[in-house]
Write a structure and sequence with these properties.
The protein is built from five helices and five strands, in the order αβαβαβαββα. It has about 130 residues and is α/β, with parallel strands linked by helices. A five-stranded mixed beta sheet has the order 1-3-2-4-5, with helices on both faces.
Length: about 130
């Protein structure tokens, strides 16, 4: 019986993630996602920004669904990481940039419309 529980635990631990991931931007991680031709969204975010909070809520709802489990969202702090976000051509907080591998697939700035945010995240899968 004990072997059964260990086997079940191993299956749970080995199962693919059921949600996409939101984490802080790291250039090496971003380049790794690009090299694997993986979907990614770069999110220029400010904690004080209401548009950013709304975008983030929509993104979290999407990443919790199986359709978006492979998407990685990398956040860049607007207030402290200006050289990073300007390297992507962003001009303000609440900028979302979708990539599929090395190819930029969509961009949205200062817009929290859930349909537009959803379309941007979906574009990273194509």
């Amino acid at each position: 019986m004990r072997a059964f529980y260990y086997a079940a635990a191993a299956l749970v631990l080995a199962a693919p993630a059921s949600a996409g991931e939101i984490r802080h931007f790291d250039r090496a991680a971003f380049q790794g996602l690009q090299a694997r031709n993986a979907p990614a969204v770069v999110f220029v975010h400010a904690d004080w920004c209401p548009i950013c909070r709304s975008q983030e809520a929509t993104i979290k709802r999407l990443l919790a669904t199986p359709a978006y489990r492979g998407v990685t969202v990398l956040t860049i702090d607007y207030d402290t990481e200006k050289p990073v976000w300007t390297s992507f051509g962003a001009q303000k907080q609440s900028t979302l940039i979708a990539f599929h591998g090395r190819r930029e697939t969509a961009r949205l700035a200062y817009d929290a419309d859930p349909q537009k945010v959803t379309a941007l995240v979906a574009a990273a899968l194509r």
